[in-house]
Amino acid sequence: MPKENESNGRGKEPVIKLEDVWKIYTMGEVEVPALQGLNLDIYPSEFVAIMGPSGSGKSTAMNMVGCLDVPTRGRIMLAGQDISKLSESDLAQIRGKKIGFIFQTFNLMPGLSALENVMLPMTFQGVPKDRREKRAKELLESVNLGDRLNHRPTELSGGQQQRVAIARSLSNDPEVILADEPTGNLDQKTGREVMLMLSDFHCRAGKTIIMVTHDANVARFAERIVNIKDGKITSIDDNPEHEVCETEMQKERDNPDNNKKIKKEKGKEK
Ligand code: ADP
Ligand code: MG
Fold this sequence. Notes:
By secondary structure, the protein is of the alpha/beta class. It has a single domain (42-67, 85-268), classed as 3-Layer(aba) Sandwich (Rossmann fold). It is 32% helix and 24% strand. It binds adenosine-5'-diphosphate and magnesium ion. Adenosine-5'-diphosphate is lined by residues 25, 27, 32, 34, 52, 54-60.
C-alpha cells in the first residue's frame, strides 16, 4: 500500500461525497437524464478537474455540489452534511458559507467596483463593514489588483475580472471552490496566469477545488481528473505529474530534504 498522500487529504473523510447521483430534467413530455448514477469522493484540499464533452453533465454536477440544485435521486454529502434534500433557503445558507464560485463569464455585478464585488458575499454573511473592506482589499492585493479596487468590471480586462472573481470566491473562506470553465473566456496566456493564481491559492490556503474544463492545458493543474460522458463517470485518473504552484516550489527550494514529489517544471514551460 502506498503511503496516503498527505497533501491531498486522501485518507481523511471526503469533503464531498456523491452516491448514485441522478438528475433527470423533464422538458414537457421528454425526460433528459443529465446525470446517471455518479459516485465520487473528493477529499479535503484536493484539486480535481472534471472533463467531458459539451452536454455531458459537468455543470449539472457542479450545480448540485454547489447547492444550486438538488438531485432527482441519490445522495450528496458536503462537509458531513446531506445536502440532497434541503430546502432552497437551507441550500442558500450553506452555499453562502461553504462554497466559492468562479464562472466562465466572471459574473461580477456590473454596477459595483472590484472592492464592492469582493465585499458582497461577506455582506450576506453579516460581516461588519470595516472587516469586509479590509479582507476584500487584502484578497484583491493577493491577486495583484491592489491598484484596481475602485474599477468597475467594464473597466477591467477579462483576466482582471476573473482575478476579481477568484478573490470574491475566497471572501467567506469557503470549504470548497467550484470553478466552471474558469479560463473559457480568456486567451491562452491570460488563462494560464489565472490558473497559476488559482493553483497557488489551492496550495497556500489548502482549498478543495473542483474545476470543469475542456482544456487539457488547464486540467494539468489538477491532482485528479474525472472524465464524464453522457452523465456517467467513464474514468478517474490520478495526475501525479500535475503542475505545481509557486508556493510549493518555493517550499521545495527551501527544504531540499523534502521528499514530496515535485515536478521542477518552471523552465520547461511555454
Ligand atoms: P455540460 O456542462 O457538460 O456541457 P450540462 O450539465 O449543462 O452539460 O447539461 C447536461 C445535459 O442536461 C444536457 O443534455 C443539457 O441539455 C441538459 N440540461 C442542462 N440543464 C438543463 C435544464 N435546466 N433543463 C433541461 N435540460 C437541461
Ligand atoms: Mg457546462
